[in-house]
Amino acid sequence: MRERPGPARVTMERPRHLAQANVARQRAPLSSPMMGEFALALDPMYRVAEASPGFVWRLASGERHGVAVVEDGVALTVNLSVWESYAALHAFVYRSPHGRYLIQRDRWFEPVAQPSTVLWWVEAGERPTVEAALRRLRYLRAHGPSPEAFTLLRRFGPDGRPEGRRGRRG
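RE: above sequence
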């Protein structure tokens, strides 16, 4: 029996927002010297995200950087946020000061199974859980991109139609 995160509910009656989750495996605890530059950047990057046009919500935790989980015997950090659109998420991830840290991620994080980022649409006001995000990521890894769970490079719009680099609309 294949695991499904649930049907893609495509309705245009209520606005939809883009949920994103990514998983990473830190090379060391945040308190270690190896993670020092990264740890110092966390609060400023959270402020940049929260002030970014199109930012809706992020899961905050007592660990400062994501939520720690164990998935398939591997300790991972899960970051989860919601944005008004892909354009808003893209602007923050790649065009804000966050992009500088993204380029250096190998200094602080070990490789994990790919894809390590999953996107999906939620109804405005919905706040996805870590469990739901991990289900979507497992679904994406098992079945590939679809309206239920997709990647940064192979995206679907809130209406379920392909968009982005492959399958670009209009």
